[in-house]
Specification:
Oligomer: single chain
Largest sheet: none
Distance between the termini: 45 Å
Mean pLDDT: 75
Strand content: under 5%
Radius of gyration: 18 Å
Shape: globular
Length: 262
């Protein structure tokens, strides 16, 4: 990305954050290739198999191994979540380095990457569309789960390929998402925005761990918050994994979603 285009993108990100427009910011962030995770390449690397095995569905990995790889990924992401390492990794750089805005964007990119990685470990389909864009509705469910939004984890589970045996069709990305459950997506967007687009939001989840937030660098806030949110997502993905998820669990999730909509 050339410097002129990057600068324009930075300005749009600043405007989106100022206007508390999470949807627009998410769209801008996912346009950067650094936010994308290639499903087959990633799984082939972490499970030490061929990409052909992944593409053809020849993947027989135990739950124990998946949990081990997921924890290693979380640890690696938390370790690497520093403002300097992130900003220097983006072509053209970011002109807002060292600011709250820079930390917000950093947090979003790492969260988006980690959400994809954990989802793929637990057999979720590719979140990258044929046109190379990431499914924003799918990402919202993962980010909502990481933020602890009521109903988001349930919606995520019933939208997975593991739940298809309990439903006539998958829900994620389907017209039903836009009609019956659209209110829940709006709620998730609003709450994730509140927890993402301000320094207070980034710090709110770590008050018990770090009593004096003002004495912590923005990078540390992101790092600690990332570990907590990653563990939430990993826990919910484990609950919804095929070997753990029953028809009774599915019915409970449907009731939770319906209650949240009402």
């Amino acid at each position: 990305m050339d410097s002129g285009k990057q600068s324009l993108n930075n300005n749009k990100m600043l405007e989106a954050i100022t206007n508390h427009d999470f949807r627009s910011l998410l769209k801008l962030v996912v346009e950067n290739p650094i936010a994308h995770v290639n499903r087959s390449e990633y799984l082939a690397k972490v499970f030490k198999v061929t990409e052909s095995d992944i593409i053809n569905g020849h993947l027989d990995i135990s739950l124990k191994e998946r949990k081990k790889v997921a924890q290693k990924q979380i640890t690696a992401t938390v370790r690497n979540t520093t403002v300097i390492s992130f900003l220097t990794g983006i072509p053209g750089g970011i002109a807002i380095a060292g600011t709250i805005t820079g930390d917000i964007i950093q947090n979003m990119v790492y969260s988006i990457r980690l959400a994809q990685q954990l989802a793929y470990i637990y057999d979720f389909d590719d979140l990258i569309e044929e046109d190379g864009k990431i499914q924003t509705n799918g990402l919202l469910l993962f980010l909502g789960t990481m933020a602890g939004v009521n109903g988001s984890a349930s919606l995520l589970r019933v939208s997975s390929s593991n739940a298809i045996k309990y439903a006539s069709k998958q829900i994620l990305g389907k017209p039903l998402m836009k009609t019956l459950w659209y209110p829940l997506l709006k709620k998730i967007t609003r709450i994730v925005a509140d927890k993402t687009l301000t320094k207070k939001g980034l710090a709110s989840g770590i008050a018990k761990i770090v009593p004096v937030v003002g004495g912590v660098t923005s990078g540390s806030i992101t790092m600690i918050g990332m570990e907590m949110s990653a563990k939430k997502l990993n826990s919910e993905l484990l609950r919804g994994f095929e070997q753990n998820y029953s028809e009774r669990d599915y019915e409970k999730d449907i009731k939770i979603i319906e209650a949240e909509i009402i």
